[in-house]
Amino acid sequence: MMSEKILYSYTGIFDTPNAVIHAAEQVSKEGFTKYDVNTPYPLHGMDKAMKLPPSKLGYVALVFGLAGTLGALLSLWWVSAIDYPIVIGGKPLFSFPAYIPVMFEVTVLSASIATVLAMLFIFFKFPNNSHPLHGTEYMKKVSSDKYGISIQAEDPKFDESLVRKLFESVHAKEINPLYWDNDEINHKNKIFEPKFLVFLLVIGIITSCTAYFTLNKLMFMLPFNWMMEQPKQNAQQRSLVFNDGFGMRQPVTGTVARGYLPYVFKGQPDLAGEKLVNPVPISKESLKLGQTKFDIYCSPCHGYHAEGDSRLRGQYPNPPSLHSEKVRKWSDGRIFAVLTDGQNVMPSYSSQLTLDERWAVINYVRALQRALNAKESDLQ
Amino acid sequence: MSMIDYTRELSVLEGKPSLRELDELISKPLETKPNKKFYIALSITLSMMGLLVIGLGLTFYYGIGMWGNNVPVGWAFDIVNFVFWVGIGHAGTLISAILFLFRQKWRTGIARFAEGMTIFAVMTAGLFPLIHVGRPWLAGYLFPYPNQHSLWVNFTSPLLWDVFAVSTYFTVSLIFWYVGLIPDFATLREKTNHKFKKIIYSVFSLGWRFSNRHWQNYEMVYLILAGFATPLVLSVHTIVSFDFAVSIIPGWHTTIFPPYFVAGAVFSGFAMVQNVLIIIRKIFNYEHIITLDTLEKMNKVILLTGSMVGYGYAMEFFIAWYSGVEAESFTFLNRALGPYAWAYWIMITCNVVSPQLFWFKKIRRAIPVMFIIAVFINVGMWFERFVIIVTSLSRDFLPSSWAYYKPTLVDGMILIGSFGFFFTWILLFTKALPVVSMAEVKAVADGAQPSHKEHS
Fold first, then answer.
1. Across the interface, do A39 and B215 touch by the CB < 8 Å criterion?
2. CB–CB of B439 and A41 under 8 A?
3. Runs of H (alpha helix) within A143-257
4. H/E element, A147
5. What is the 3 state secondary structure string of chain B?
6. How far from each other are the two terminal CA atoms of chain A, in whole angstroms?
7. Residue in B186, B224, B454 closest to A143 by CB
8. pLDDT one-digit tens code per residue, A225-279
9. Which residue in chain B is spatially nearest to A131 when comparing CA positions?
């Protein structure tokens, strides 16, 4: 059975670093190219002895580092100046000094990751646990305290007796041939094995289910309630804090909310006419407000010019004109009493018009009255 | 005694152990079943971590109102702990990257462990910004990604720089650590007879075969990573200090912060490495790998960085007076004499006074003394962050909004729990991975390198 095995390499084991360096120099001098030195840790001077060209991984770091710097700069510029231009703290949209930290971090991150991945997966073609050297006594020794050289059979200069002689001449302690294992020769990429594919599928299903559950279900379970439930009292809710059980509170006794001055002349319009004084001065603004409110609330019955020409076409009894002598002689307070309390068919407008708006409407009505009953002095 | 040959480099390892002895010694904890002491230690750290779980549970359920933070002290234990743990992480990268670039061979015995501590410390630190945001499940919004809200993060904010710095730091440290572990995984793969372990080691060693053609590229990558990690480690605490220095709060708004934070981080990190290593070398009999000389050299670094920190404290006071800014000088007097004076003087005693004892060679080489000093330094550095953050916030420009901050029970649980989290990882690490790099230590053993005499 041995004879069926295919030779991979001849290996020599050495005890000291000096011996292995010397041997490597000889192997290199003989013109072998397909050989390797295996040492438990890097030996100083071995690269020179094997005449290895300098490592090219520095270029990988350079290219990916610069790509990271530029990529970061471009994306920061695009995000801050183009896609989402928001001025923060008075800084310009493209504020380069503030980008330096992020650019630096991205440079380091991309260069480090790229260099290590390039080394492991491109330069070394890892992961590879099916190499002929694996699982051999040779590997056991060079992984701990011995130093080895392995000259491969596929080297054009390879010749069993020649290699054996070479190893003997440099005082190798052990000289052994290494053979390919059958499964190493028939090694197929395990990526396409059904077992592995099923494994990938299971991983994929588990990942997607977990992601779906987390993002769509878990995030909306307690305690992740997105502040939908808050320990606070809403209006109309029963309260456990207050004795009366109401969530809403009464204003403090004797206080008056803004704009809610109580009306004390209910049912006494004449008294109101005597006592109430219009607090809103006649101005452009108050007339404008008065006109707006009059046109909305009063004009449907009283007409745009307060002449009693209702647009309701007799569906309601027509109201009187506001240009009558009676109304013209009424004080502002008397009219206010009508707006607040209502009169005959007219209802109260206290819920539609605030105090100031009522006075503004009165000011506007005065202006309308004046327009039909101008005085001599108005012409001056 | 009087004639010392300075031309000959002293051996890093004591007792001339053979390469195989080193392998056996370092892989022994992985091949033996954990003993009773290990389980006792693990149960202690797990109980402490239980406190973390309870504290975080309360925080998540009821909100961060469970903490003592309130206006005006909006940053307190959460950010203090964050800065403390990130600082602890700095020693690992300093040992593995900066000392590597300086060709300090004594780093080999402690580098793997310190790197591991970096990773666990940054993981612990990472908890705090997440819980500090209140709803940690939304922390993904911290990262800029194209989203359905058409929103982007604020790239001019130091807090965003922090997200980049800490996550980059964690990733690069993890890569650095893993690259260093690959040859050791391969050694373990060849050593073990256990079938299941062999599969795991084979997967993680990726099929490493100690080829010199690989070693050559490997060393280049190690150099490149060290070259990147060095400015990275300096940038991380610089950016953490920007969180404060870029604001306008008196006591925070100072240009001295970046160097002073970095020195403080290395200071506290070395103290923590010192504390843990003293125990590890004893338990695992690593006295001749992690030698007394190594510990003494670490004490020298502690002395140097401790003096830099002391200089930083003095310079802050000087600038507060020299600048003539009223709010600034008040803040510093308030630190030393105000309601938080107790914290300030704990900080000064632990950070400025205690490391100065390392001027004496006897103290530098006395293990119990250096252990106690290292504990003091850790306490002091925690208080440094407390003093900076809490005293500045509790009394800022507006006297009407001044308040005295008091932590709550939940704050305390999370602080203790963070130590439990960190040490649980450390304990699991000591049993799962070689805590000393076999390949690196073997490379610096006596006679491990060719003598070059016949070749040069």
1. yes
2. yes
3. 160-169, 182-185, 194-212
4. strand A147-152
5. CCCCCCCCCCCCCCCCCCHHHHHHHHHHHHHCCCCHHHHHHHHHHHHHHHHHHHHHHHHHHHCHHHCCCECCECCCHHHHHHHHHHHHHHHHHHHHHHHHHCCCHHHHHHHHHHHHHHHHHHHHHHHHHHHHCCCHHHHHHHCCCCCCCCCCCCCCCHHHHHHHHHHHHHHHHHHHHHHHHHHHHHHHHHHCCCHHHHHHHHHHHCCCCCEHHHHHHHHHHHHHHHHHHHHHHHHHHHHHHHHHHCCCCCCCCCCCHHHHHHHHHHHHHHHHHHHHHHHHHHHCCCCCCCCHHHHHHHHHHHHHHHHHHHHHHHHHHHHHHHCCCHHHHHHHHHHHHCCCHHHHHHHHHHHHHHHHHHHCHHHHCCHHHHHHHHHHHHHHHHHHHHHHHHHHHHCCCCHHHCCCCCCCHHHHHHHHHHHHHHHHHHHHHHHHCCCCCHHHHHHCCCCCCCCCCCCC
6. 134
7. B186
8. 777 777 788 888 888 888 888 888 888 888 888 777 788 888 888 887 788 888 8
9. B207
Most B CBs within 10 Å, among A73, A102, A214, to test the B interface: A102
Between β-strands A35-38 and A7-14, what pairing exists: parallel, antiparallel or unpaired? unpaired
The position carrying tokens 């190499």 is: A131
pLDDT at position B256, please?
92
By the CB < 8 Å criterion, does A33 face chain B?
Answer: no
For residue B158, list chain A residues with Cβ-Cβ distance below 8 A. Answer: 101
Q: Which chain A positions have a beta carbon within 8 Å of B231's beta carbon? A: 104, 108
Mean pLDDT of B304-319: 94
Per CB-CB distance under 8 Å, the chain B contacts of A46 are: 212, 215
- Tell me if chain B has a CB within 8 Å of the CB of A45: yes
State whether B442 and A41 contact (CB < 8 Å): yes
Q: Which of A44, A108, A140 faces B228 most closely, judged by CB atoms? A: A108
Give per-residue pLDDT as tens, A79-111. 999 999 999 888 899 999 999 999 999 999 999
Contact yes or no for A112 and B172 at CB 8 A? yes
Which of B109, B107, B95 lies closest to B17, judged by CA? B109
Structure tokens at B342: 């107790």
- Is B232 near chain A, with CB under 8 Å? yes
pTM value is 0.81
Residue with the bigger pLDDT between A313 and A325: it is A325
A229 touches chain B (CB under 8 A): no
Q: Find, in chain B, the residue whose alpha carbon is nearest to that of A215.
A: B137
CA contacts within 13 A on the Cβ side of B58: 15
Chain A with chain B: Cβ pairs closer than 8 A? 202
Could you say which residues from 65 to 124 on chain A have a Cβ atom under 8 Å away from some Cβ of chain B? 65, 76, 79-80, 83-84, 88-89, 91, 95, 98-99, 101-102, 104-106, 108-109, 111-113, 115-116, 119-120, 123-124
pLDDT digits (tens, 9 = 90+) for B334-390: 999 999 999 999 999 999 999 999 999 999 999 999 999 999 999 999 999 999 999
The interface predicted TM-score (ipTM) is: 0.92
Sequence letter at residue A304: Y
- Longest pairwise C-alpha distance within chain A: 140
